[in-house]
Design brief:
Radius of gyration: 22 Å
Strand order of the largest sheet: 7-6-15-16-17-14-18
Largest sheet: 7 strands, mixed
Length: 385
């Protein structure tokens, strides 16, 4: 989406082949239309920040900055014995006070989340609380994830809301970005084969049609990119096969506000459960509905089991759910040393007219993905000059 946006804005004829029936990838704002009131909830990415400089440039370029929606200040919670607890109440402060001075001696570079944060918060705190907090951020086990790729310090725009979404959800940005002049989006177009023939790439679609272009960009999971490149660029494909992916099974539910006794909360972190976290729509209050997205661990529960677990935690019956929707997402499971892997990938890409973007380069945050796309656009522009 973001790479196509930059190409179209630069006057390049651009076609996006989108397998789904909507743009945006991890931007998936599901709208409950049962009442015609347009209530939505996020099934993927859910928050933007004023430190997302490249993303903000897209928002301003699309002219939709007036659609920014502030997020209500409601707390994050921890789930203990199926009840919502405050996060501070779960911290062993004696251990934390003894451990936190290590923060000034340890360096993130070359460390995993466990090896870096464990000594800083204390081993017991890390095991019982902080490991689950980190897991909830990425919806995967994060102990081996690179510490310097989890939270990044970025400069902030003080003229923009610190954290925000859009009045109709993050999908609004995807719609605006893919509506640029010169950008054609073909929905339901899955790619089956990618071949290099002469100076052009030949893209074979699953329906039997084909597209030819001198330049191709892949904005797909690393595993999908690897499979498409096995024949054409086997060395590059081999590197891409090294990136493991994890599946997140998300279940979104919409309920009547009057039926729920739980106080408003932004999200909840699970420990030793079938899911990693709950993301709540309470950050954008609605007069009638509340919505919650449960990010389940893969293969643990079927749909019926997920719905039952959601009802247990919300204190509702299945008949009280006015809408239920499922979504699967893939995320990269990055490991220490990943920056060296990126260096090797970029070296192999340098002499090609292939461009790779996604959440498996500099990090999984929205801004990391947009920044990678902008970087690849710069390379494409230079290659064409």
């Amino acid at each position: 989406m973001s790479l196509g946006y930059r190409c179209a804005r630069a006057g390049m004829k651009t076609v996006i082949l989108e397998r789904e029936d909507r743009p945006g990838g991890a931007f998936h704002s599901h709208t409950h239309d049962g009442s015609g009131e347009g209530f939505w909830l996020e099934l993927g990415a859910h928050t933007c920040y004023n430190s997302y400089g490249n993303l903000l440039s897209m928002i301003e370029g699309c002219g939709i900055q007036d659609q920014l929606q502030p997020r209500a200040k409601v707390p994050f919670k921890m789930i203990r014995e199926d009840r919502l607890k405050s996060i501070p109440s779960c911290i062993n402060f004696s251990e934390l006070l003894l451990s936190v001075p290590r923060l000034f001696r340890l360096r993130k570079e070359g460390q995993s989340v466990a090896s870096y944060y464990g000594p800083i918060v204390g081993r017991k705190n890390f095991k019982t609380l902080f490991s689950h907090l980190f897991n909830s951020v990425l919806s995967q086990e994060t102990g081996d994830f690179p510490a310097d790729m989890l939270f990044k310090k970025r400069s902030r725009r003080k003229d923009v809301l610190k954290s925000f979404t859009f009045r109709r959800g993050l999908q609004s940005l995807a719609g605006a970005a893919t509506s640029q002049k010169g950008l054609e989006v073909r929905f339901g177009e899955g790619v089956s084969v990618l071949r290099k023939e002469g100076r052009d790439f030949r893209v074979l679609l699953r329906e039997g049609r084909e597209v030819r272009s001198p330049s191709v960009a892949l904005a797909v999971p690393a595993s999908t990119a690897a499979s498409l490149l096995d024949e054409t660029l086997p060395d590059l494909a081999g590197e891409l096969h090294c990136i493991k992916t994890v599946r997140i099974e998300s279940l979104g539910v919409v309920v009547e506000k009057k039926d729920l006794s739980l106080p408003p909360f932004a999200g909840a972190v699970a420990a030793e459960d079938s899911f990693y976290s709950i993301v709540s729509r309470d950050t954008v209050p609605h007069h009638r509905y509340r919505g919650f997205t449960f990010h389940f661990k893969p293969g643990r529960l079927d749909r019926e089991g997920k719905v039952r677990r959601a009802c247990e935690l919300l204190g509702l019956t299945e008949n009280q759910l006015v809408d239920v929707v499922e979504k699967e997402n893939l995320l990269p499971a990055l490991r220490v040393g990943h920056k060296e892997w990126v260096r090797r990938i970029d070296e192999k890409l340098r002499e090609t007219s292939l461009y790779l973007t996604g959440n498996y380069f500099s990090g999984v945050a929205i801004e990391d993905c947009v920044s990678r796309s902008f970087s690849e656009f710069d390379r494409l522009k230079q290659d064409r000059s």
